[in-house]
């Protein structure tokens, strides 16, 4: 992930269209969040703290706070404009969020006391990191989590097979063209859409990995029970947790 990639999310034109574009390009976003919230409901108590890496416009944050009235969120994002939109979206719910404008690759600099966060979550953010950066971030997250605390990630992946990936990409482009608003020149046809996506992903430094690679990174970062909760084409929800202290109960 480059600093240019972070700055891309502070550009007014990118921020203004972000949520509308997500609906067109990632129609499974709502489903993925519901999978995460359902899983989280089995492992939290009345009051708990959640660390969110890449809070963005507050889309996931709003769903999280609505589902768990006792949740307090530490929302980290490198783009100040995104955080402004998140505050506006959340309204009174923002009182339960501590927003931090910072590069989440440097989670250790957030001065969060180790072992005090019940869950850490991220959505559509970590695919901007290299494998090395992702491992480093998740190692820091592991130290922040309570023993037994879960990390949940909804993000992009690539297929193991290049042929399967090519097929998925064709389906992806076709779906975007069908969902796009009439007159949106970016998605006028499949060729135009492909060029737009390639340019966007290059600018933002996308580096999605295979599901197996992501699970291996979770384990390398010191997390355990790494599992796939949901998968469709090029999007997945994965989970892992900080090991329990010997002798303690889950």
Give a written overview of the molecule.
This protein has 9 helices and 7 strands, in the order αααβαβαββαβαααββ. The protein is an alpha/beta fold and 250 residues long. It has a 7-stranded mixed beta sheet with strand order 3-2-1-4-5-7-6, sandwiched between helices. The model has no long low-confidence stretch (mean pLDDT 90). The protein has one domain: Vaccinia Virus protein VP39 (Rossmann fold, 3-Layer(aba) Sandwich), CATH 3.40.50.
Present the secondary structure layout.
Layout: H1 3-8, H2 12-25, H3 29-40, E1 48-53, H4 59-67, E2 71-77, H5 80-90, E3 97-101, E4 117-123, H6 131-144, E5 145-156, H7 162-179, H8 190-204, H9 211-220, E6 224-232, E7 235-241
Parallel strand pairs: 1-2, 1-4, 2-3, 4-5
Antiparallel strand pairs: 5-7, 6-7
Helix pairs in contact: 6-9
Distance between the termini: 35 Å
CATH superfamily: Vaccinia Virus protein VP39
What is the number of domains? 1
- What characteristic shape results from the CA principal axes? globular
| Known CATH architecture | 3-Layer(aba) Sandwich
Total count of strands = 7
Per DSSP, what share of the residues sits in E-state strands of 2 or more residues?
15-25%
Instruction: Walk across the major sheet and give the strand order.
Output: 3-2-1-4-5-7-6
Biggest beta sheet attributes: 7 strands, mixed
